[in-house]
Amino acid sequence: MTDTTAREPAETPDPTPVAPGCPDAVDTQQRLAEERTMMALQRTVLSNERTLNSWLRTGLATVAAGFTIGLVLGQDDAIGPARSFGVVLIFVGGLICSAGLVRYRMLRKRLEPEDVSAVPMWLLELLVGFFLVVALVGAAILLRV
After folding, report:
1. How far is CA 15 from the centre of its chain?
2. Residue 6 domain-assigned?
3. b/e map of 99-138 (b: 16 or more CB within 10 Å)?
4. Widest CA span of the chain, in angstroms?
5. Nearest Cα to 56, choosing from 91, 85, 99?
6. Is the pLDDT of residue 8 over 80?
7. Residue 71 lies in a domain
8. Has residue 14 been placed in a domain?
9. H-type helices in the chain, by residue range?
10. CB 91 within 8 A of CB 135
11. Of 58, 62, 56, residue with least CA distance to 86
């Protein structure tokens, strides 16, 4: 058999609704506006980081393509057009990574005064630096320096 007694609501609503012109309503609206602004800034930061990831992914793919073209098509020991093209692609991939970091920095500077959490800049610079070292090592391997 089920219990048919009425249960008390977990939380009783405030019997006095806040009128649109009263100070409590203004404080609530101000707080909500600030929360929405902070969420919009967080979305912008996350979007900026995703865009940087896209730039880095494109740069690394270009480096990998250059390395592959240089090794597969440039089978002979001489530095021919295939190896030269591979080296050019490797350097273009490094430039793409660098351009992505510069673009990321520009937008991040505009958001700097706001209190939004983001990936530390030193970590991103270290990551892009690593990608550039990989690109230089790839070019050196192709050129057999």
Report:
1. 47
2. no
3. ebbeebeeebeeeeeeebeeeeeeebeeebeebbebbeeb
4. 92
5. 99
6. no
7. yes
8. no
9. 23-72, 81-111, 121-143
10. yes
11. 62
State whether residue 140 is helix, strand or coil: helix
> How many Cβ atoms from other residues are within 10 Å of residue 93's Cβ?
27
Would you state the structure tokens that stand for residue 135, as one six-digit string? 């690109």
In one letter, which amino acid is 85?
Answer: F
Residue 4 is predicted with a pLDDT of: 56
Residues sharing a CB contact under 8 Å with residue 55, sequence separation 6 or more, in sequence order: 96, 97, 99, 100, 101, 103, 104
Six token digits for residue 122: 């030193």
Q: Does any domain span residue 13?
A: no
Q: What is the pLDDT of residues 39-88, one digit of tens each?
A: 888 888 888 889 999 999 999 999 999 988 888 877 666 667 888 888 89
Tokens of 67: 């390395």
Q: How far apart are CA 86 and CA 71, in angstroms?
A: 8
Count of domains observed in the chain: 1
Quote the domain boundaries for residue 114.
24-143
φ/ψ of residue 5, rounded to 5: -75, 150
